[in-house]
Amino acid sequence: TGLVKGLGLDSQTRCAHWHSHADILAIRFACCGEWYACADCHAQLAGHPAQRWQQSQFTETALRCGACAGTFSIWAYLAHPEACPHCGAGFNPRCRLHHPLYFELG
């Protein structure tokens, strides 16, 4: 997980805040370009406020699967947020509740 930062990370980027079997989605933050396991990890470790990705930036590669380390764009994730487009590993469906923390949706 060397690329992804977070508290108490396991090999699939689960962190101290989110650690169910499906909590394997990491995000690259728009403000710093660094990968974090979640918004809480960013808040505790980054030393600056988070910024959301703007819709004009949704082609950026900003999501990473902890199961296969595949990366993909925000558009690809938002089109199919339930699973990794590379390996099919399931993501936590409740992650959708946190989309406003990461993405400017309108």
Rounded mean pLDDT score: 95
From N to C, what is the helix and strand string? EEEHEEHH
Number of alpha- plus pi-helical segments: 3
- Give the % helix: 10-25%
Largest sheet: 5 strands, mixed
Shape: globular
Separation of the first and last Cα atoms: 32 Å
Trace the largest sheet across and list its strands.
1-3-2-4-5
Q: Uncertain regions: pLDDT < 50 for 5+ in a row?
A: none
The SS-based structural class is alpha+beta
Count of distinct strands: 5
The amount of beta strand, in percent, is 15-25%
* Backbone CA Rg: 12 Å
Note down, in words, how this protein is organized.
The protein has 106 residues and is of the alpha+beta class. Helices cover 16% and strands 15% of the residues. The chain contains 3 helices and 5 strands. It has helices at 39-45, 74-79, 99-102, and strands spanning 4-5, 25-28, 35-36, 61-65, 71-73. A 5-stranded mixed β-sheet has the order 1-3-2-4-5. Strand 2 (25-28) and strand 3 (35-36) form a beta hairpin. The longest helix is centred in the middle third of the chain and has 7 residues, at 39-45. The chain is globular. The termini are far apart. The mean pLDDT is 95.
Q: What descriptive keywords fit this protein?
A:
16% helix, 106 residues, five-stranded mixed β-sheet, 3 helices, globular
Helices and strands in order, then pairings?
Layout (H helix, E strand, L loop, with lengths): L3 E2 L19 E4 L6 E2 L2 H7 L15 E5 L5 E3 H6 L19 H4 L4
Parallel strand pairs: 1-3
Antiparallel strand pairs: 2-3, 2-4, 4-5
Short summary of the structure?
This protein is an alpha+beta fold and 106 residues long. The chain is built from three helices and five strands; from the N terminus they run E-E-E-H-E-E-H-H. The chain has a five-stranded mixed sheet.
